[in-house]
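Thread amino acids onto this structure.
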């Protein structure tokens, strides 16, 4: 009898281990984390300062990872790199050619279906409805009679408030042209070649049964430019936030390979965080936030203040996400810690906040905060980052988001005042 009880004990231990060990090859994930952090925090990228050519190189590196996972670009973009629309962003960053002729920016408008908002203001622009769609165009749908049945068009103007999209998501973007040009060959692209432009890097993994509902997962990848007055002039930003970017890439890898997410996942590496959340403030304007069920942002997950088995959820008193995560982690070896010292304003200072202001249950996951020894100092180097902690955090996030990603849990919207 005792022997049988011991066998049953081992069986339940085995089942428990299988249930809570989500990553099959942690050594491989540790290797990838080390590679990503080492590249992004290398001296050659000079701290990934905003509006610097090294930030563009970092964005292209992240883009290669998304591309290797066969993820989709955001509608209306032929690359994973998405320009941030701020004062330093030139309109010429986009290039549209039709039948070999380049169109000026004020001669067309592009907007996207599904969970994406129009990027441009349509209310003061008159359009000619085109009656043809070029063959072989996968990126765009040209506005024609069939699309006009979807949109409410009055006096050749598009009434944005009356847009009713088909139910299939994500759909193709719609291009509306000004003038009489009959499109034969359409070439639309972005040209990330200027150091004067900030770039988010975003990718989509469509959901299976609830593709119109989104879980946004993010991390910022920018840091601080060199300070020439110091002997070690480079602020490498290994923990802040090459570590979070590595976690983002690992989560994209895990979910892309598993490929059973019921809700759509959007992975985004934000630029401009260090300048006041510019990247996230831009993306929140482009996404239909009503469709975003939750947003989990990651910042500084390369050093652990929680014995490698836990993380802090900023703004834990706001909304229900803390309780959802706690419930999903129950029985595992991981624990979520509440953000009880709100005087630090961690919830309000990271890329989750623009989405929280829009009502999205949006929080940041951290395993170390700005009290860390090397925060914004030159000693934030690769050798100080614990790659195992990054992978543990990734596994904890996989577990803690399970009911969000399978569509069985929908937390209430936030009401944040600030």
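Threaded sequence (418 positions):
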């Amino acid at each position: 009898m005792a022997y049988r009880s011991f066998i049953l004990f081992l069986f339940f231990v085995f089942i428990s281990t299988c249930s809570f060990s989500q990553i099959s090859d942690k050594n491989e994930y540790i290797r990838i984390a080390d590679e990503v952090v080492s590249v992004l925090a290398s001296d050659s990228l000079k701290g990934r300062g905003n509006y610097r050519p090294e930030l563009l190189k970092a964005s292209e590196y992240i883009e290669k990872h998304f591309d290797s996972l066969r993820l989709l670009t955001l509608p209306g973009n032929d690359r994973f790199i998405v320009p941030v629309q701020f004062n330093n962003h030139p309109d010429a960053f986009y290039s549209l050619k039709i039948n070999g002729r380049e169109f000026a920016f004020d001669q067309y408008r592009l907007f996207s279906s599904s969970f994406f908002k129009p990027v441009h203001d349509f209310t003061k622009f008159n359009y000619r409805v085109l009656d043809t769609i070029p063959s072989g165009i996968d990126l765009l749908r040209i506005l024609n009679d069939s699309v006009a049945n979807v949109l409410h068009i009055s006096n050749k103007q598009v009434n944005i408030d009356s847009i009713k999209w088909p139910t299939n998501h994500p759909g193709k973007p719609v291009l509306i042209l000004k003038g009489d040009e009959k499109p034969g060959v359409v070439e639309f692209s972005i040209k990330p070649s200027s150091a004067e432009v900030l770039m988010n890097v975003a990718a989509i993994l469509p959901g299976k049964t609830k593709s119109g509902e989104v879980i946004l997962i993010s991390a910022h990848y920018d840091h601080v430019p060199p300070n020439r007055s110091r002997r070690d002039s480079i602020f490498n930003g290994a923990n802040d936030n090459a570590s979070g970017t590595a976690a983002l890439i690992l989560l994209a890898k895990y979910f892309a390979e598993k490929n059973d997410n019921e809700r759509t996942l959007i992975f985004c590496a934000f630029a401009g965080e260090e300048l006041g959340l510019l990247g996230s403030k831009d993306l929140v304007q482009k996404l239909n936030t009503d469709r975003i069920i939750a947003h989990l942002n990651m910042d500084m997950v390369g050093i652990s203040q929680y014995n490698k088995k836990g993380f802090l959820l900023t703004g834990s008193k706001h909304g229900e996400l803390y309780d959802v995560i706690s419930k999903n982690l129950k029985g595992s070896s991981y624990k979520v810690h509440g953000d009880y010292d709100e005087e630090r304003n961690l919830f309000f200072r990271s890329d989750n906040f623009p989405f929280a202001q829009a009502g999205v249950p949006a929080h940041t996951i951290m395993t170390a905060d700005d009290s860390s020894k090397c925060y914004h100092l030159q000693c934030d180097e690769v050798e100080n980052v614990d790659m195992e902690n990054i992978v543990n955090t990734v596994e904890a996030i996989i577990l803690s988001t399970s009911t969000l990603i399978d569509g069985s849990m929908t937390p209430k919207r936030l009401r944040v005042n600030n």
